[in-house]
TrEMBL record:
Gene3D superfamilies: 3.40.50.2300. The modification 4-aspartylphosphate is found at residue 73. This is Response regulator. SUPFAM superfamilies: CheY-like. Residues 24-137 form the Response regulatory domain. It holds the Pfam family Response_reg. Keywords: Phosphoprotein. It comes from Parasedimentitalea maritima. GO terms for biological process: phosphorelay signal transduction system. InterPro entries: Bact_response_regulator, CheY-like_superfamily, Sig_transdc_resp-reg_receiver.
Amino acid sequence: MDDSDLFAAAHRQPTSRRPLLGLTILVIEDSRYACEAMRLLCLRSGARIRRADCLKSARRHLQVYRPSVLIVDLGLPDGSGVDLIEEAVAASPRVSVVLGTSGDDTGQDATLAAGADGFLAKPVTSLATFQEAILSRLPADRQPMGPRELQDEVIHPDRLAFQDDMAHVADVLNDSHEEKILNYVAQFLGGVARSVGDNPLADAASGLAHALSSGSPVNAEAARIAGLVQERMNQRLAI
């Protein structure tokens, strides 16, 4: 079933103020904060959003529906989003627009090498940037007619979504300190911290990533992150 066909009736054609009206965007993202940002961007743009938080859930969705746009986070709890991008690009019929997203500086190269149409660097908060990344890669018949109003709005996700991400990391760290798990934590926290402008947390995530890549002891870095995460979870009690 093609989601874009279901919602592309005449009364759902794109307009200058809602240029993504009629499109369904599947976002594969494990961060609640980043996903909330995507939800607000889709809402402002007129697009319908579907969400998955891991590769397994995304693949299950794609077995049933074909969205208009696929936005894939590269670092997911059960594997790399690059693998899903490669699968989506090779599928027939192909999703109209496939984009990768990451807070990692090397994410763009990996995304494009996998065959994606483009890349969104985190944090994704600019409405104009989000809309242009999709519209510039859509077929001409799926774009709004006439001049389009440039909406240079910056969205602000609910801070409680960030607190949910901290709870997620705490749960993951409580389960295991295996290298694979710590690599995931470093990647996940790095992206979330940069999205909210939390420099101490971003530095800690970078320190853990460096220790893992260099083969250095990681206990001190993992403990530092656990302490910072706990501090931020405590802030939720005060909200």
